[in-house]
Sequence to fold (106 residues):
Amino acid sequence: MNLDLTALADEHLAAARAAPHGRSAHRVLHDGVLRQTVIAMTAGTVLDEHNAPAAASLQVLSGRVRLTTHSGGDELAAGTLRMIPKERHGLTAVDDSVVLLTAVND
Fold:
């Protein structure tokens, strides 16, 4: 499977800008326990705190986001790849942003 992440990111950012909740997501890969999802969010949009999967990473494709946990938060810019801590966390778009979430679920 070949996938143009840049085109997909652009498509979902346009959809997020048109959506009343400021988000658009698309699962691009589902293979057993592995899942990858493109998530586009407009500036100021928040994904409320939620539980972490068994293992996960977040790659910022465009924009800037803030990953928050009880122990603090990190601002991540385009091009950044970060492991998601194994604790409850949330995500806020600082700018219009697109991320690639890779998760392994039990």
The CA atoms of residues 37 and 99 lie 8 Å apart.
